[in-house]
């Protein structure tokens, strides 16, 4: 199981890092084994940032991400290698994505019909 518990990510921006950009604020959800989850939202809403935190490409500013009950920020050595073996990302390819004028319900019905 994957669990995000009040996860936030804040980037320091500006000439001297004097400003904060809140990319993700207080996100919580759980994904059970066998579930398929899609993150859907406007450009800049934090979808990729959440994915990068789950993959440990970047660290959360606050909160925790658990995989099978273990905080992924504390994984190292063989445990981290096993995590990377079991959790993998599928990165977005903007040239193979659906037509942006399609409505979400039409896209989901296309996927449902296919599977």
What does this structure look like?
The chain is of the alpha+beta class. It has a single domain (2-114), classed as 3-Layer(aba) Sandwich (Rossmann fold), CATH 3.40.50. The protein is built from three helices and four strands, in the order E-E-H-E-E-H-H. The chain has helices at 47-54, 77-86, 104-114, and strands spanning 2-13, 19-31, 62-67, 70-71. A four-stranded antiparallel sheet has the order 2-1-3-4, covered by helices on one side. Strand 3 and strand 4 (70-71) form a beta hairpin. The chain is globular and about 40 Å long. The two termini are 23 Å apart.
Helix/strand layout:
Elements: E1 2-13, E2 19-31, H1 47-54, E3 62-67, E4 70-71, H2 77-86, H3 104-114
Antiparallel strand pairs: 1-2, 1-3, 3-4
Strand order of the largest sheet: 2-1-3-4
State the secondary-structure class. Answer: alpha+beta
CATH superfamily: P-loop containing nucleotide triphosphate hydrolases
Q: How many helical elements?
A: 3
Whole-number mean pLDDT: 86
As an assembly, this protein is single chain
| Series of secondary-structure elements, N-terminal to C-terminal | EEHEEHH
Number of strand segments: 4
């Amino acid at each position: 199981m994957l669990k995000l518990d009040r996860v936030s990510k804040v980037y320091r921006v500006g000439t001297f890092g004097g400003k904060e950009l809140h990319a993700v604020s207080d996100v919580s959800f759980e994904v059970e084994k066998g579930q398929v989850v899609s993150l859907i939202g406007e450009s800049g809403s934090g979808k990729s940032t959440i994915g990068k935190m789950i993959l440990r490409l970047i660290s959360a500013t606050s909160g925790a991400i658990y995989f099978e009950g273990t905080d992924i920020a504390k994984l190292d050595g063989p445990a981290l290698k096993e995590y990377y073996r079991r959790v993998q990302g599928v990165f977005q390819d903007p040239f193979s994505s659906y037509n942006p004028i399609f409505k979400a319900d039409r896209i989901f019905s296309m996927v449902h019909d296919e599977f």
